[in-house]
């Protein structure tokens, strides 16, 4: 049998994984990987860290050179080589040498498309083609941006788009002392978390000197400033576009491959396109969300690598199952970490899923240990079924762990009842005895059982404005250090002696620092016959963070004192 | 209906949890918690951290005082109150005031036993009752030990028992500059990990100046030294006993409760003992291992808290399911973290479970980021079924996360195939794109599929001694910096041109730094028709650590050069 000729388009995450996997399965295959850029196999997720100098040498982001591919794996990694055409009948591709313009034809038995996605650079924005406008997709991009910032002594940078790449670029450039402005079209950054949790991120950006502009877009770019859709002018000598990516489907369309409803390349359970012997993987394809069963796109490294492996496995007759994705992600942002998995509340609403959520704020480790910090954890679950649907976590430490545990639970179709008793590794050094996920699940179980009522901190401003009866269940010294303006201080340690101060004829709302004391008071009052008592989920700890950014950046009246 | 009288014996993990849960479910219950010591509700797991001064004030380890229990929860927490007798017919307990000796009788409707476990202090050891002998069970113990070390200017401490408490005590005292000796009766510390991984812990202890003595026991304690079973004398002015705990079943036996085969109090699915209206929870009870279905005991904080909650829930007619335990644990030791869950290989053998294991050593985050460090991860799984049975992880960072993910998978009866594609949160800051658990599962899948052969690093010495053909697949500069004495250096980047050096008539063993390059070479050779090629799992990175402690502490000949 003749040696199998495998041609791979794209030499980064998916492409490089496909090539290496093919070699492991078949020593005799002729494997060629064409990459239009000058580098293969680089860690694109690491690119922003060059901007702060954390990764001083941008070339070190390249993990394997074409020479290493050749020597170690006998793989032809051809850089500066753009595949511009596919003849699916003849099973050939046309490859253009990007430097010389020379075009040659190469035959394949199996073709793997892993072209990735391109940063969206709308032509409608005036000045989008100017030399001070950048995107961050590869090593060339990041070197160009870094050189521009340095060579032109740029002092003000605007980053357009508050997704992962945008935020990482903001963080890394901000650390070099420049003045950053982040412009986001939606009402909050990071579509992977809900509005309430996003306020914590806004606060973090604000605290780190970043100007955050929401609900606004980029209209025009000049040399020294940008103009937003609102008309606002922002000083900026350099602009980084990070509003999103669009799947690179030019070649796939050209080959006749079907494109899915989301604009990504359509693939079947084996990552085959609609054209025989052409596979597609990575950021360019359309995937299925495992939870919603809706088509979607997901530009993440791990799925791309696994899709590539699966495609090659199928090429060699191995069983493969494209099970879809749940979407798990984490970002480091100054001294904060933000992680999430599965569905947000917003996504549940969008899909018409009846759901509930709980927010708990345990410490990352036992309180008596030094350097403890709170973990803000939101758990989203179906109602009334209690299936775990998603989670978001924000904190200085340990949030990736909590989210990974919940991602595992979602993948295994776990229920809240599976999380309450889940035995995780505990030592005071690493966590609390009941881990954050256990605590969240126990609260969720209460909600599923209808054991008490809760209200989100996003409703507190409305409660204050409508004159609701709000009890602060903390101790007097905590109350004195800052509280909701209209709240009444009845500590958990005193309420049994002060029941006459708690009305029975109107709704009563209770909070404390992290909802634990207020929860105990709510249960006690319910047991005492109070019928309309509600716990304020997230309590003062989340409320302070939630209100902060808007309090600082608008002229509205704060509902909190002394903070 | 009269108020329910709930009496709880023991005021720490299980006891305090039971009391708080009872109050949440029933505002009118009369809840009394008797604790024979002077404190309730302290974090016993945090005790060792007082010895290093990380927790400067031992009293801060107490999380809630009797006064707080009273004020916040209307719970009577009676300290220095030992329950010495139970009359299950009359439903009363006899309580002795530890200070005055006074005895009173207290009635109960429901009794919860949470007496914990006592440190084992064998009377057969001469001098066990001396004033320089300590155990670590409560705040009184840790204050006494700390005071003794300081007041007597102790310079040498012997810790007997290399379990979690023993190791934490060693670490914390060692940090004050004293000379520590650890004596362990088994051939390695930590029964929760296998021998090969324990060598990494031995190395860590050795590197931190701790004298580690294995396969030996304590025979006699003197003022200035101890004598071991082997006759060896060790300088030590203070001795900490940490060889294990035995469940405190005195009261349960007294009440007529059945004791299980492991010596713990027998309980049913609802944590009821064999005597009506008497529950038992925590370290004193016998539990069932969820994986082996064998009875066992597990002295850990989280299970105790959940058992207590469940017992009270059942008391109030709520559904409860005692599903057993898997055992998840983690310990911080100098600059190393050691975590594990489920079964070790040794436990699999003991239970007659056909199993396989893989060891992988990925970095904790993307290699191009600063401060990366390896995670040694062993995954244990059933053969041929591929059920995830257990895992062990050692590293400077991130091991608790990997183990918690695998613990979740075990709890959900996950298979290796569920781990390969598991979508965890990735950013270069936090992990590699394929997380450590993904990588381990992919290797495990290969083993299940019989795709190649592997051998554990514990076999390498035998291979060297028997003159086996061992290839070092690293680059020449790596080989020069240290290698297996008898190995031949044929780098992955050269082997295709040097096939004539690789014999076909005898077994060939291959390793590299972390098994990734050797794995690729093994697959290629298999594909080229070599039939007896074996990958050395764990490779040089694990081998160095595995051999180190014995190389340093015995006069055997090393099988490694230059290290």
From TrEMBL, chains A, B:
One of its GO terms (molecular function) is oxidoreductase activity. SMART domains: RHOD. Its cofactor is FAD. Residues 464-548 form the Rhodanese domain. InterPro entries: FAD-bd_OxRdtase, FAD/NAD-bd_sf, FAD/NAD-binding_dom, FAD/NAD-linked_Rdtase_dimer_sf, Pyr_nucl-diS_OxRdtase_dimer, Rhodanese-like_dom, Rhodanese-like_dom_sf. Keywords: FAD, Flavoprotein, Oxidation. Pfam families: Pyr_redox_2 (PF07992), Pyr_redox_dim (PF02852), Rhodanese (PF00581). Coiled coil: none annotated. Belongs to the class-III pyridine nucleotide-disulfide oxidoreductase family. This is Pyridine nucleotide-disulfide oxidoreductase.
């Amino acid at each position: 049998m003749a040696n199998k000729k495998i041609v791979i388009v794209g030499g980064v995450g998916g492409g490089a994984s496909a090539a290496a996997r093919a070699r492991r399965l078949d020593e005799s295959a002729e494997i060629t990987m064409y990459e239009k850029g000058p580098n293969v196999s680089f860690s694109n997720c690491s690119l922003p860290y060059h901007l702060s100098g954390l990764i001083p040498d941008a070339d070190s982001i390249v993990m394997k050179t074409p020479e290493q591919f050749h020597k170690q794996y006998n793989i032809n990694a051809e850089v500066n080589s753009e595949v511009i055409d596919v003849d699916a009948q003849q099973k050939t591709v046309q490859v253009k040498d990007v430097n010389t313009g020379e075009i040659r034809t190469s035959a394949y038995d199996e073709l793997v498309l892993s072209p990735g996605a391109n940063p969206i650079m709308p032509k409608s924005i005036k000045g989008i083609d100017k030399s001070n406008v950048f995107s961050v997709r590869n090593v060339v991009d990041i070197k160009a941006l870094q050189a521009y910032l340095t060579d032109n002594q740029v002092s003000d940078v605007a980053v357009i788009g508050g997704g992962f790449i945008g935020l990482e670029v903001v963080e890394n450039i901000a650390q070099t002392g420049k003045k950053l402005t982040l412009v986001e079209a939606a009402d909050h950054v990071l579509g992977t978390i809900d509005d309430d949790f996003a306020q914590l991120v806004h606060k973090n950006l604000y605290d780190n000197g970043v100007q955050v502009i929401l609900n606004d877009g980029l209209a025009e770019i000049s040399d020294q400033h940008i103009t937003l859709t609102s008309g606002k002018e922002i000083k900026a000598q350099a602009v980084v576009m990070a509003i999103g990516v669009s799947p690179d489907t030019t070649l796939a369309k050209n080959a006749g491959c079907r494109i899915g409803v989301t604009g990504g390349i359509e693939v079947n359970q084996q990552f085959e396109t609609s054209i025989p012997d052409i596979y597609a993987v990575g950021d360019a394809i359309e995937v299925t969300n495992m939870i919603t069963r809706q088509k979607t796109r997901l530009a993440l490294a791990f799925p791309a690598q696994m899709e590539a492996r699966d495609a090659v496995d199928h090429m060699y007759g191995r069983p493969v199952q494209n099970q879809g994705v749940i979407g798990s992600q984490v970002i480091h942002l100054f001294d904060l970490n933000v992680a999430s998995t599965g569905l947000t509340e917003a996504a549940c609403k969008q899909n018409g899923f009846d759901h509930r959520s709980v927010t708990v704020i345990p410490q990352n480790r036992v309180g008596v240990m030094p350097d403890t910090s709170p973990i803000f954890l939101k758990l989203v679950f179906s109602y009334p079924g209690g299936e775990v649907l998603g989670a978001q976590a924000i904190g200085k430490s340990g949030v990736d762990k909590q989210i990974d545990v919940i991602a595992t639970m979602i993948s295994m179709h776990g229920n809240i009842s599976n999380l309450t008793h889940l035995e995780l590794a505990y030592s005071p050094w690493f966590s609390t005895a009941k881990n954050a996920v256990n605590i969240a699940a126990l609260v969720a179980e209460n909600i599923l059982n209808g054991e008490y009522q809760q209200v989100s901190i996003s409703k507190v401003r409305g409660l204050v404005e409508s004159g609701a009866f709000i009890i602060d269940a903390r101790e007097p010294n905590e109350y004195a250090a800052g509280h909701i303006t209209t709240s009444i201080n009845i500590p958990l340690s005193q309420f049994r002696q002060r029941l006459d101060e708690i009305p029975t004829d109107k709704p009563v709302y209770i909070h404390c620092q992290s909802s634990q004391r207020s929860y105990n008071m709510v249960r006690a009052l319910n047991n005492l016959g109070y019928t309309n008592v509600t716990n304020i989920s997230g309590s003062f700890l989340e409320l302070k963070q939630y209100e902060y950014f808007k309090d600082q950046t608008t002229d509205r009246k704060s509902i909190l004192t002394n903070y």
